[in-house]
């Protein structure tokens, strides 16, 4: 078994994830795994970083596929006995003018952004070693979508006692409500991406709370963040930040020093804790 530290970034064959891998290769004192659902796209990204003199490693990971997640889990367990840094970056968004029915957009978006990210956490969080760092890439859109929810939903999503099961039920209810055409009547905002990112931010708050309760003394820090508006295939060329600039906050959270005991369970933007 390797005694090296190890970092994993999901969805890192392009965009912000690739920039996070690039920064970690330069700053993280251990092995850095670029992961991609498509091995061809992943290997091409690894080759690109190698051209820059960096040495990322590669592992396949499709966060929509439980088998793929478990294969990575078993690999990390066998090779490293755990995991030091996890950046949950993989995500999708339909374009604003996409004509796919809203209920389909809701199901597909929630499947990857919320349920896929949650499955990665379920399988990999138990592997995270003491002083580990977990970063869930959410979005400022989660805050605006939260403000667009009914008072009742806002209260639930801001609760300090909401459980993961309750959150999962609410996310599933959103998808069902869109299928029945009643999501706005039921208090949801009209954004599937926004609701999926509410799920990511609230999931992070819950998981951080559980870590504090169940693994007290392990000094693991887990946070959600917004990278900003970043020029990637998702956000397009008009966005204000380069992928490297977008990577700054996730990388800051991934590399919080072992002496740090905060932030933890927070929503962080521009390296600053934001109110939820
Ligand atoms: P991007 O350029 O579209 O990259 C998304 C990455 O996620 C790609 O590598 C994609 O792989 C991967 N991915 C999608 N579904 C996956 C799955 N099921 N399994 C594994 N990987 C998957 O988008 P980005 O702008 O870099 O976004 C990265 C993260 O930042 C996302 O969570 C996004 O919501 C968040 N974010 C972005 C912005 C922004 O302005 N760009 C703002 C706020 C938050 P493929 O190449 O195979 O599709």
TrEMBL record:
User: So what EC number does this one have?
Assistant: 1.1.1.184
Q: Which UniProt keywords apply?
A: Cytoplasm, NADP, Oxidoreductase, Phosphoprotein
Q: Where in the cell is it found?
A: Cytoplasm
Give the record's family classification.
Answer: Belongs to the short-chain dehydrogenases/reductases (SDR) family.
Query: Known CDD domains for this protein?
Result: carb_red_PTCR-like_SDR_c
- Gene (name only): Cbr1
Q: Output this protein's name.
A: carbonyl reductase (NADPH)
Q: Which organism is it from?
A: Passerina amoena (Lazuli bunting)
The Gene Ontology CC terms held by the record are: cytoplasm
Annotated transmembrane regions? none
Recorded GO molecular functions are: carbonyl reductase (NADPH) activity
List, alphabetically, the Pfam families matched: adh_short (PF00106)
Enumerate the InterPro entries for this protein.
CBR1-like (IPR045313), NAD(P)-bd_dom_sf (IPR036291), SDR_fam (IPR002347)
């Amino acid at each position: 078994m390797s005694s090296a530290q190890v970092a994993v970034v999901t969805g890192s064959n392009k965009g912000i994830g690739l920039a996070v891998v690039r920064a970690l290769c330069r700053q993280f004192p251990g092995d850095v795994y670029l992961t991609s659902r498509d091995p061809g796209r992943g290997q091409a990204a690894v080759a690109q970083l190698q051209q820059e003199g960096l040495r990322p490693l590669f592992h396949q990971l499709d966060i929509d596929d439980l088998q793929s997640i478990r294969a990575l889990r078993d690999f990390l367990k066998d090779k490293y006995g755990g995991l030091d840094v996890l950046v949950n970056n993989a995500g999708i968004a339909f374009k604003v003018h996409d004509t796919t029915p809203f209920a389909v957009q809701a199901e597909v978006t929630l499947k990857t952004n919320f349920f896929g990210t949650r499955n990665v956490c379920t399988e990999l969080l138990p592997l995270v070693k003491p002083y580990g760092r977990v970063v869930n890439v959410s979005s400022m859109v989660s805050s605006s979508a939260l403000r667009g929810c009914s008072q009742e939903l806002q209260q639930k999503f801001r609760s300090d006692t909401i459980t993961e099961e309750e959150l999962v039920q609410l996310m599933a209810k959103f998808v069902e409500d869109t299928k029945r055409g009643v999501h706005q009547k039921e208090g949801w905002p009209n954004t599937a991406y926004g609701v999926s990112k509410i799920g990511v931010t609230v999931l992070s708050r819950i998981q951080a709370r559980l870590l504090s309760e169940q693994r007290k003394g392990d000094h693991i820090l887990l946070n959600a963040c917004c990278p900003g508006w970043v020029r990637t295939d998702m956000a397009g060329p008009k966005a204000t930040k380069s992928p490297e600039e977008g990577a700054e906050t996730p990388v800051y959270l991934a590399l919080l020093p072992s002496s740090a005991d905060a932030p933890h369970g927070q929503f962080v933007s521009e390296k600053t804790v934001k109110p939820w």
